């Protein structure tokens, strides 16, 4: 029964704690020790399986506990017994079954797409409109409070052919940010440099500090102030020639409409964990492009399964032109959860052509890193 009319009869969950190799400081908080993700597995009547990952961060999108509960209690009843073919209906009901919990909805849509792709023997990008690129330039974030460790990381990145870095700023002090920008300008002139404050600046400090940083001519400066400070974002945009990117200010298409209307940014970071899925991520990108804004492929603290979902979305969305930041599986996690490594070649993420997402998680790793799970025997 290899058709999309078959029903979904299995729904399993794992809440994972994945050890990480370094500390990352961002404007709104830090990650150290482990990062937490939730994996969902759907099984159809013929035994085909589709996987999806939710990658929450409590200070940014939401908590792993809420994500797990959303998937386990509120979304499960919409999926069990539904037809694989009815993805749009399931996602449209999911939007109202539980408020927010965008990471859970992203994981669900990913798993539905992976399942449909595997049953139909086509890649997820083909279900999202077809492919516009075979590879996506990779940006790696420089976010270690111990900059000497990031200098080692920079050497590794250059050896691997990575040509873009994003400096995380606004978590210590302005002098630390300027020192690191000077280091990059002097020692890594071939690298494209982007700057991301992750909401780290107060509205009092933002104008002066952003003006200083703009003198280094980064590709863009991302989200200097709190998500809801739309007025200050608009003011900062007017103040500098360097493009201003919105990240935390824009979750879904509804935010994108308002951001464009209020002229708060020159571009936006699209993330499936913010938009609540790949389809809604594409919608954000298209609204941005329609308003003449550029689009970047952002991510959260993700494992390779979520990277794959983002990769397929970007592969099918020509509006996303600024590359991606799917670096965690290769440069941050002690061990990824995929059966085979998330593929990066000479600084570019490779778009998979196999059925579904093109790779699947290693079940022994899911069990090994699980702190809780709901898996049918
Ligand atoms: Mg950001």
For the structure shown, list the relevant keywords.
377 residues; alpha/beta; Enolase-like, domain 1; TIM Barrel; 2 domains; 4-stranded antiparallel beta sheet; globular; binds magnesium ion
Written account of the structure:
- Helix 2 (87-97) packs antiparallel against helix 3, helix 9 runs parallel beside helix 11 and helix 11 packs across helix 12 (304-315).
- The protein has 14 helices and 17 strands.
- The longest helix is centred in the first third of the chain and has 19 residues, at 102-120.
- It folds into two domains: 8-121 and 362-374, 2-Layer Sandwich (Enolase-like, domain 1); 127-350, TIM Barrel (Alpha-Beta Barrel), CATH 3.20.20.
- Strand 8 (164-168), helix 6 and strand 9 form a beta-alpha-beta unit.
- The chain is α/β, with parallel strands linked by helices and 377 residues long.
- The relative contact order is 0.17.
- The model has no long low-confidence stretch (mean pLDDT 97).
- The strands form four sheets. An eight-stranded parallel β-sheet has the order 7-8-9-10-11-12-13-14. Strands 5-4-1-17 form a four-stranded antiparallel β-sheet. A three-stranded antiparallel β-sheet has the order 6-16-15, with helices on one face.
- 39% of the residues lie in helices and 21% in strands.
- The protein has helices at 64-79, 87-97, 102-120, 124-127, 147-160, 174-187, 206-214, 230-239, 253-261, 272-275, 278-290, 304-315, 328-331, 363-369; strands at 8-19, 24-26, 29-31, 34-44, 49-54, 135-137, 139-142, 164-168, 192-196, 221-222, 244-246, 267-270, 294-297, 320-324, 344-345, 348-350, 370-374.
- The structure holds magnesium ion.
- The site of magnesium ion (MG) has 7 residues, from loops.
């Amino acid at each position: 029964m290899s058709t999309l009319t078959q029903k979904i009869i299995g729904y399993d969950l794992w809440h994972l704690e994945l050890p990480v190799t370094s500390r990352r400081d961002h404007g709104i908080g830090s990650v150290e020790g482990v990062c937490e993700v939730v994996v969902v597995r759907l099984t159809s009547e013929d035994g085909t399986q589709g996987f999806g990952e939710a990658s929450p961060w409590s200070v940014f999108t939401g908590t792993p506990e809420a994500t797990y509960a959303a998937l386990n209690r509120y979304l499960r009843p919409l999926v069990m017994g539904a037809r694989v073919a009815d993805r749009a209906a399931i996602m449209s009901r999911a939007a109202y079954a539980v408020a927010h919990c965008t990471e859970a909805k992203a994981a669900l849509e990913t798993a539905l797409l992976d399942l449909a792709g595997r049953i139909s023997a086509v890649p997820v990008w083909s279900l999202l409109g077809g492919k516009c690129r075979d590879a996506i330039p990779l940006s790696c974030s420089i976010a270690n409070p111990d900059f000497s460790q990031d200098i080692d990381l920079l050497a590794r990145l250059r050896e691997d052919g990575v040509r873009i870095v994003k400096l995380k700023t606004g978590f210590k002090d302005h002098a630390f940010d300027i020192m690191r920008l000077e280091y990059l300008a002097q020692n890594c002139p071939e690298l494209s440099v982007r700057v991301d404050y992750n909401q780290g600046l107060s509205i009092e400090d933002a104008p002066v500090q952003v003006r200083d940083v703009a003198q280094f001519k980064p590709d863009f400066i991302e989200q200097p102030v709190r998500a809801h400070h739309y007025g200050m974002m608009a003011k900062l945009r007017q103040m500098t020639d360097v493009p201003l990117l919105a990240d935390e200010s824009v979750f879904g298409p509804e935010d994108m409409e308002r951001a464009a209307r209020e002229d708060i940014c020159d571009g936006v970071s699209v993330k499936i964990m913010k938009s609540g899925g790949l389809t809604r991520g594409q919608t954000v990108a298209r609204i941005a492009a329609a308003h003449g804004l550029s689009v970047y492929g952002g991510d959260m603290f993700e494992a390779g399964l979520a990277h794959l979902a983002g990769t397929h979305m970007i592969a099918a969305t020509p509006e996303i032109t600024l590359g991606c930041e799917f670096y965690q599986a290769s440069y941050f996690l002690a061990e990824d959860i995929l059966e085979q490594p998330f593929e990066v070649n000479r600084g570019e993420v490779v778009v998979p052509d196999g059925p579904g997402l093109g790779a699947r998680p290693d079940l022994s790793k899911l069990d090994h890193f699980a702190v809780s799970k709901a898996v049918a025997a």
